[in-house]
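Field reference: sequence -> structure
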Amino acid sequence: MKKEDSFLIAGEALEEVFEVDQTKGLDSDEVKKRQGQFGKNKLNEGKRRTFLEMFLTQFKDFLIIVLLAAAIISGLVGELSDAILIIIIVIVNALIGAIQEKKAESSMEALKKMTIPEAKVFRNGKQKVIKSEDLVPGDIVFLDAGDIVPADGRLIEAASLKITESSLTGESVPVEKQLVDLTDPDTPLGDRVNSVYSSSLVNYGRGRFIVTATGMKTEIGKIAGMIQGTKSLQTPLQKKLEELGKILAIGALIACAFVFLIGLIRGGDPLLLFMTAVSLAVAAIPEGLPAIVTVVLAMGVQRLVSKHAIIRKLPAVETLGCASVICSDKTGTLTQNKMTIEKIFADGQVMAVADLEKESLSSAQKLVVKIGLLCNDSNIVKGKNGTQEIGDPTEVAMITLANRFDYQKADQEEKHQRVGELPFDSDRKLMTTVHQIGDAFYSFTKGAPDIILNRSEHIFSEQEIAGCDETLRENLQLENNRLSDQAYRVIAYGYKKFDEMPEVTVENLENDLIFCGLTGMIDPPREEVKDSIKDCKKAGIKTVMITGDHKNTAVAIAKELGIFEKKSLAYTGVELSKMSDEELDQKIENIAVYARVAPEHKVRIVDAWQRKGEVVAMTGDGVNDAPALKKANIGCAMGITGTDVSKEAAEMILTDDNFSTIVSAVEEGRGIYANIRKAIHFLLSCNIAEILILFIASLVGWMQPLLPVHILWINLITDSLPALALGVEKKDSRIMNEKPRRLSESIFSHGLGGRIIYQGIILAIISLVVFEMDLISYGIDVARTMCFAVLGLSQLAHVINVRSEKKSIFKPDLFTNPYLWGAIGISLVLQLSVILIPAAQPIFDVVSLTGTQWFIVVIASLMPIVAVELTKVIGGIIRRRFFEK
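Structure field:
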């Protein structure tokens, strides 16, 4: 048998297998030897990327590569100013992307809270405190309530030991640990009651264990290894921009070759033709687009920070905009990760705690509340760092219930002093305390309902203490079953009265009880999650619950939240393991709940959705969520309760642990994509105009209307600022009523490609008409200057057109984006400056214009607004007449 299967090793063989004496522990020489053999007890963090590596990664983008090629060509043919301008914009873009990634990484580092600095260990026959990273297999470690388990191990002592393993299994209820031998090698981690696991929390009791695994060999380490082996996916935006870059590059090369060949056939100057071809290439590629996309994403990221979300990788925020499935962990994500008593059964009726007030409590209800408070070893302490809950979550829930009715633990314990106790035992499944009240003594017992019912001879009610016969016992059992079927964890309460201090034995205190009542507790859903899931449905997003909890509990919560509906299905991890990929693919769209799942199941579920072409967001906080967070299109880790491993694997961290923040992020992502489409619409329609101006002029044999410096100035300065301002356009109020876009959907879908082309043609025709008319009237220098002015200013007018695909620019929201008007104003001043300032004229090959010429420029520049408004009016009439009847 391998040491890795330590939970199967017989108890008496542990010392022999791990070569340790329980009475002495390991000696210093053996510790040194084992540290050399097994290494430090910590996870491999992986190599951190330097800022330089982050910076260089930005240059992998295809569009950036094309731009750099254009810069090199410009430099080789002597156009150094063009080359320098392109290189500057590319470097600025890369810096913005790298700085944002570095900031996100720094924010994540600040969130790290889950550290295990020290462990209580038995070495050289003495107990000592050491750094947990110095633990080795074979060490004997002590555990007390409040400790975090520092390594994986096998228990050799357990006194009422309860441990929460939610970070590994997803279950918020603590596991009762026992010194038993297990024989089934397929025993799920959550049921290995004889073992403890690194990062788990000791809620109650004490224990000792032999370390069986450290570092990457622990269960957490195995999951960390799975993460390192999981490949990250390219985001939808990255794919679309890569497609766009390739289309533009191929189109530019074809156009350049065509113009060059036509010119050569006509006997043109090869050098001039080559310069024209380079100008055409510069015109075809929107130099500002990568920077604009980066800045728009960065601004979206900053907005999300104020909404409690940290984006670790810049393009990831846009991915959320096309999320069609959110796979969410239940515990701590959809629920509060806090056991809460919601139902009390007493006096023959079940009451909701929310409907009860202290004044309305019956005697039986008060007794149930007081027994839960006094027969209790946990506490809620208020200190400088806020409220701290100490002990078992089930007992904490009982204290919270009592506090609701103004019963304080310290006050009640002072009035009713504890004089004896029988600690909780997993075999008895009961806990009993003895209290002196006046001259009498009372034993209060709480525990498993079936045990207490079988040991109760009477029942307490408002009217009397009556006998408890088999019929009444069966009825009480039915009430217990009803609560259990609603996924409540049910606890029963009973008591006995003595005239003098009783003998504190099980036989004396826990038989012939007077039954008082039951409580039903549950880890309740977060209040705001219901509305968030409704918003998701409206937005065409399916929410799926994936949890390590039991199926009935998961389904009950899912029904309450609106995740589980009439045709929904629920499967356990065992059932999922028996299912083929083909069967899973057939059923997956109806499966709303997965229960008792292992980490590999979560990855498989995400995989299955991705095979359907869906964009999957995975939320979670535990170590067990990490591989799926990495595998998903976007992983969303919890910032407060989330483990370091899950944060490391995620693209987004929710600093308030709120599922509802995801809905805000989805909305932000959709808005960002819509604004990027507007920027692409604006830039490409302008670039098409520039291409057509040069292409048509070359084709018909005209002189070159624009020089490379004109095109570069317009692309980088006049175009880029307004395009950037489009990135902060207000989101459409109906954006969350639309279905998510498919991954296969083109960035030019919904008529965008057609609009880009026809509006580009309009801009080109206006500029060419002005150029040809003025060439005849005023000569090449004035004609070229006027063409440059008209193209720059008409594009500034055109940016107002692209704010909405359908709405007229004269609607009330014309001035809702002050940044756009500021950008238009700055670009206008810059464009006019290079023409009006004499010192700039030789640099840009322009000349001064007369008043008449400026009048022509202004009228021509406003024509795109007239043309596009007409098409919007006509389009609106057609839609209303034929499509909206």
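Note: The chain has 33 helices and 26 strands.
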